[in-house]
Amino acid sequence: MSDQLNYNMEVIKVEKSRINDVDFNNLSFGKIFSDHMLICTYKNGAWNAPKIVPYQSLTLDPSTKIFHYGQAIFEGLKAYKDSNNDVFLFRPDENCKRLNISAKRMAIPELPEAYFMDGLKALLQVDKDWIPTQDGSSLYVRPFIFASGRGFHASPSDEYTFIIATAPSGPYFSGKVTVLIEEHYSRSANGGVGYAKAAGNYAGQFYPTQLAVEKGYNQVIWTDDNTHEYIEEAGAMNIFIRINDTLITSPTSDRILDGVTRKSIIDIAKSEGIPVDVRKITVSEVIEAANNGTLKEIFGAGTAAVVSPISGFGFKNKDYILPELENPYANKLKKRITDIQTNKAEDAFGWRVKV
Amino acid sequence: MSDQLNYNMEVIKVEKSRINDVDFNNLSFGKIFSDHMLICTYKNGAWNAPKIVPYQSLTLDPSTKIFHYGQAIFEGLKAYKDSNNDVFLFRPDENCKRLNISAKRMAIPELPEAYFMDGLKALLQVDKDWIPTQDGSSLYVRPFIFASGRGFHASPSDEYTFIIATAPSGPYFSGKVTVLIEEHYSRSANGGVGYAKAAGNYAGQFYPTQLAVEKGYNQVIWTDDNTHEYIEEAGAMNIFIRINDTLITSPTSDRILDGVTRKSIIDIAKSEGIPVDVRKITVSEVIEAANNGTLKEIFGAGTAAVVSPISGFGFKNKDYILPELENPYANKLKKRITDIQTNKAEDAFGWRVKV
């Protein structure tokens, strides 16, 4: 950990931990929060030094801009603990970079990298005991920035709040995941904010996802808003499609999030000798492959969902079932990435960061 | 006012009004808030009865979904007081309808109409003294709903908060308004949330608008995300373009907000005998009209901005100046709509609602 910041970081600890109230063997996703949080505010043109405080409620005026104009961004990453009780993060520098890419697009002042990186590490040291070690569990880490300035004028806020909160969590999805390829609704526009982890991108997906859930699917696979012919992403995950032995995923764009899991999976797959094709992929190509038997796998990749095999999908009122393979790429890739993340395997890529 | 709700509405008044601290002759837009607000919460599958309380801060857990997923919508309307001290609203039923249209798209439970309408009227009675009467001023009324449930799972909230806050306000724009016709960034996607007053739609416009402001413009005129060839809206206003004597405005769509001022201006213009053409309008058509002298006026129409004449616009690094007419449509239409709103003229349309 870099020293310059943490020597001076103010840490106010809880008087009594809540950890004994938590059943670590039955964790859901993101519903229980650790004892502390990092908080850092932007005022008068500068970010103030972050501090660690007990996890606590925020007091905000009703005119605070977040409520009206949704000026907010977030990141998601996970902390793991190995059998030696050492704590690891997975490519946190990528989250820091992307947070600032999102910040720029959403007219939020960029956060100093040290505030993010050192703040994150200091917080994990304080709440180290909250990192679960049960299989499939981890400490989900949620850095976010929101507009905390006041006023009804539709313009950027003059104050912001950066918080890192953490939540011991179990798997994001439970059971088989089915998806609906969307033909009407869209997630993002050319020249829009789809590549940013902007708060409003998520709210916009809720209704079409509800409609898909009512039809029996778990998630929507988004297509481009102009033709609905190109596969984009699944909102909480990027999408990988295996046709024959080749793994295909859409290139990132201003409509598609540059997922950390996505790019790690591409690198791992290549290192495993799996042919990877990063190119635009059409819905009709996927349907054709499903019909002629060359469609082998579809899976989502994202921090929360890790690698989520998709068992079937719907398109134009027809359902397609993916074959059950003996050794799917998804399992192999999921094992390799989680082994790297949890320090169970060598990390040839240099992605794991010890806290 | 309907009786069934207000007889039972709980009203907790401030101990001491802040009204004497306010300089009503120098009001900016949406920065000072009246003594009271209406609050109404959704829990366990139902909206609870609204109540009126002193304007006050909200206490929210850091995991509250509004901070992460931007699930929020709003409305904007204005209250006016005439020389008899009677209070008027302008087509508030339209705001109520649109709030619920936005709610549906953003997976927010629809609000009972009586909670909105009777709550609004009751609030205005309590804070009647806050309605400014100075020319160009009004009480800006901001109803909004945000996701107040907790948790990091990217899914709709299980709790919501509806608030109406009011702010005595001066004009939204001061001085001449110039706009940049956008060629790269976009406000909304086909099948997206552009027609909803969704919080995130506004945050997404801040950065491109900042870039336009740096170039010397006040606002962006958005174009379609696919070709950037069609004029859409200006984010805080719908756009009207006068070529020769015809007033042209884009039809609403899933990318364009169905503005209350927009549709009122269309009706008023028609009643004045002005030819109105609601149709798609291309940027090249506007440039051609500017070049051949048939482009007479451009103005924005919206609740906050009322009718805002645009004095010039930029496109492809070239600036176009609008002519200064002796009797522009904008002035005539602005006078007619504000006279109706402030009870200075007969309201043949039945839009004005006495509180």
List keywords for this structure.
homodimer; 355 residues; alpha+beta; D-amino Acid Aminotransferase, Chain A, domain 1; D-amino Acid Aminotransferase, Chain A, domain 2; 2 domains; ten-stranded mixed beta sheet; eight-stranded mixed beta sheet; 8 helices; 19 strands; globular; BCAT-like_N (chains A, B)
List the helices and strands and how they pair.
The structure is a homodimer of 355-residue chains.
Chain A lengths: L2 H4 L3 E2 L24 E8 L2 E2 L3 E4 L3 E3 L4 H5 L2 E3 L2 E5 L5 E4 L1 H14 L7 H14 L11 E10 L12 E10 L7 E5 L17 H16 L4 E3 L16 E6 L2 E4 L10 H12 L4 E3 L4 H10 L2 E8 L3 E10 L2 E4 L7 H13 L10 E3 L1
Helix pairs in contact in A: 6-8
CATH topology of the largest domain in chain A: D-amino Acid Aminotransferase, Chain A, domain 1
**Low-confidence parts of chain A:** none
Helix-strand topology string of chain A = HEEEEEHEEEHHEEEHEEEHEHEEEHE
Average the pLDDT over all residues of chain A and give the rounded result. 95
Helix content of chain A: 10-25%
Query: What is the CATH architecture descriptor of the largest domain in chain A?
Result: 2-Layer Sandwich
Q: What is the gyration radius of chain A calculated from CA atoms?
A: 21 Å
The shape of chain A is globular
CATH class assignment of the largest domain in chain A: Alpha Beta
List how many beta strands of chain A DSSP finds.
Answer: 19
CATH superfamily of the largest domain in chain A: Aminotransferase class 4, branched-chain amino acid transferase, N-terminal domain
Regarding quaternary structure, what we see is homodimer
Number of helices of chain A: 8
The span between the termini of chain A is 7 Å
Number of domains of chain A: 2
User: Largest interface, and how many residues on either side?
Assistant: A-B, 73 and 73 residues
Beta-strand content of chain A: 25-35%
Structural class of chain A: alpha+beta
Please describe the biggest sheet of chain A, giving its number of strands, its sense, and whether it closes into a barrel: 10 strands, mixed
